[in-house]
Design brief:
The protein contains 11 helices and 16 strands. The protein has a 6-stranded parallel beta sheet, sandwiched between helices. Strands 6-5-10 form a 3-stranded antiparallel beta sheet. It has a 3-stranded antiparallel beta sheet with strand order 7-8-9, with no helix packed on it. Helix 1 packs across helix 11, helix 9 packs parallel to helix 11 and helix 10 packs antiparallel against helix 11. The protein is elongated and about 145 Å long.
């Protein structure tokens, strides 16, 4: 069914709609985004943040003792505007990375991007294995609903996603470690089931690595945002960053690091896109909430349950209609049954989201409508056959009556002749 592109699009819309119906959650105070804005770059007279400014920024953040610093910026090559200070700033940055064990950087692999677009991590971060993959996953409609937990690079080396790497670093202080249980990953008794690679909804070629559904925050802007100039100028309080996750990333459109979440289409959201650093923050927030059992983990309905519902949808209307027997209210009964069934499916989709399951509502509605159409045709054919049989009986009866009348007439005529 999901091979039909339009049906998948409708399924996406139902899923997004149900997620938007959830109650608004409070902001996540554990995460602070330090964004590089266009205004910051104008004030600094830079087109992108150079190494010297980045060193100054991270050092100021370090003084506030954050639990984790996530750097969503590539630094595989030097970035400088003054050749005289380039080598010095590059050396300072390397030293800073080496001496900041709670700092996680990024690497762009070629698993999603084209090989020529792969970007290595800074050597110091790669050596210390303090990196995460920056890749994000778009569905066919360009919205982000899934995320990597980890995947294997072309060289078969496993790498966590950037969001997962930062979340795991944060949880170390809580003595919560990632556990592999069978084929699933587990944090503090919370299981994160992998999206099945044989799922009907997503073709197997789209499910590489260990992917999970992104349980994004119901609030449009759930994280505190500080510009880098405010950090550099000291315009923040000590409690803003202490013991928190501080994510540093681009927050301007020209960075091209812009993505779309299902709530990006919300009328309340003045900005229709989401910066990459915010998407990573969404994953971190969902992983932490699940690990602390503050939010459920979204997952697909088990295939056995889905198949059972499909069989029920296929059998139940027909059995019900034919059980009614011959009655003039067949079409009305079918209509009422179909309406009730559609309402149950729509309500079941909402309840399943509350319980943490993605129910393929569009698929079930499609089956119900096709089933109702087929049964309507059968009922029409049955009614046509009944009408045909009734007319045949009527003609037969009238013929017999006519034959009897003719016979009586002939008898009378013969008697009159005698």
């Amino acid at each position: 069914m999901f091979a039909l592109g339009w049906l998948r699009t409708v399924e996406y819309d139902f899923y997004d709609f149900y997620l938007k119906l959830r109650s608004i959650q409070p902001p996540d105070s554990r995460i602070v985004i330090v964004g590089i804005t266009e205004q910051d770059l104008r004030e600094l007279n830079q087109s992108t943040l150079d190494d010297g400014t980045l060193v100054e920024l991270i050092e100021k953040i370090k003084t506030q003792n954050p639990r984790v610093i996530g750097l969503d910026l590539h630094r595989n090559l030097p970035v400088c505007y003054d050749i005289k200070t380039c080598d010095r700033d590059r050396a300072k940055l390397a030293t800073l990375f080496r001496n900041t064990p709670n700092l996680i950087g990024i690497e762009t692999t070629s698993i999603v991007s084209k090989p020529e677009q792969a970007i290595l991590a800074h050597p110091e971060l790669a050596k210390a294995q303090r990196i995460g993959a920056s890749e994000l996953i778009e569905d066919k409609d360009r919205l982000v609903r899934r995320s990597y937990f980890y995947f294997s690079k072309p060289n078969q080396e496993n790498i966590f996603s950037f969001g997962a790497a930062v979340a795991l670093k944060y949880l170390e202080a809580e003595n919560i470690k990632l556990v592999v249980e069978g084929r699933s990953l587990k944090l503090n008794n919370t299981v994160f089931p992998k999206i099945p690679d044989k799922l009907k909804f997503y073709p197997s070629q789209e499910i590489d690595g260990y992917q999970i559904l992104l349980n994004y925050h119901s609030r449009n802007h759930p994280f505190e945002f500080l510009s880098i100039c405010k950090i550099l100028d000291g315009e923040f309080s000590a409690d803003d960053l202490r013991d928190k996750i501080v994510l540093i990333g681009a927050a301007y459109e020209l960075s091209k690091d812009i993505w779309y979440l299902p709530n990006s289409k919300s009328k309340e959201n003045s900005r229709k896109f989401t910066y990459g650093v915010e998407v990573h923050a969404q994953l971190i927030s969902s992983l932490l909430d699940a690990a602390f059992q503050e939010r459920i983990v979204l997952k697909f309905m088990p295939g056995l349950w889905e198949n059972a519902i499909v069989i029920l949808l296929l059998l139940e209307p027909g059995l019900f209609i034919y059980w009614l027997g011959k009655t003039t209210k067949k079409d009305l009964d079918l209509f009422n049954l179909t309406v009730v069934q559609l309402l149950l499916i729509l309500g079941g989709g909402w309840v399943s989201i509350i319980l943490g399951y993605w129910l393929p509502v569009a698929n079930f509605i499609f089956i119900t409508l096709v089933n109702a159409t087929i049964i309507s045709i059968l009922i029409y054919q049955n009614r046509h056959e009944e009408e045909k049989l009734r007319l045949e009986k009527q003609v037969d009866r009238q013929t017999k009556e006519l034959q009897k009348a003719l016979a009586d007439l002939n008898k009378i005529t013969r008697e009159a002749v005698k």
